[in-house]
Specification:
The protein is mostly helical. The protein has one domain. It has eight helices and no strands. It is globular. The model has no long low-confidence stretch (mean pLDDT 94).
Length: 159
């Protein structure tokens, strides 16, 4: 399955390489891809603006780009550039559609900036609430109970 390969070949090793991996971060980002796009859409349907499997909005990406290049996130910039083989961070948010590794990292940066401690690796409700409160927002269309089911499947290894 494509999604499992994304986790095993991209999310986990990439986060480990840049020092952003934990069991909870792995579950949270992998689960976010399932909740947001089911790893099927790279542009929000029926019509944007969210981009990539993790459905990040362009304005959010540009804010993270600024944080990484000029803000408190500068310590993460070099490792991210190196693992993505970039000289500079892309200015075009469309890279979230074409570079899965980069999109996963930006999703992880979004959660890193949220500050609260990540949920326990066995807490599906905690992951669903964390996603809703810090990624999808109150305006997003995600429903907590649907997300709990997805995150439980991720925790159980069935998704």
């Amino acid at each position: 399955m494509l999604a499992q390969q994304i986790r095993e070949l991209i999310i986990t090793p990439t986060f480990q390489s840049v020092g952003l991996w934990s069991p909870s971060s792995d579950i949270l980002v992998y689960g976010t891809g399932h909740v947001e796009s089911a790893y099927r859409d790279i542009i929000q349907q029926p019509k944007g603006p969210a981009l990539g499997f993790f459905q990040m909005e362009p304005a959010t990406y540009l804010d993270h780009r600024h944080w990484l290049t000029r803000g408190m996130g500068r310590k993460y910039l070099k490792p991210i550039l190196a693992i993505c083989y970039y000289d500079i961070l892309p200015t075009d948010p469309m890279f979230l559609c074409s570079d899965i590794k980069f999109a996963a990292l930006m999703c992880r940066i979004d959660y890193l900036r949220a500050k609260p401690e990540l949920p326990n690796p066995n807490d599906a409700m905690g992951f669903a609430n964390y996603h809703k409160n810090h990624y999808n927002s109150y305006l997003g269309k995600t429903h907590i109970l649907d997300s709990v089911k997805v995150f439980q499947q991720v925790i159980d290894g069935t998704l």
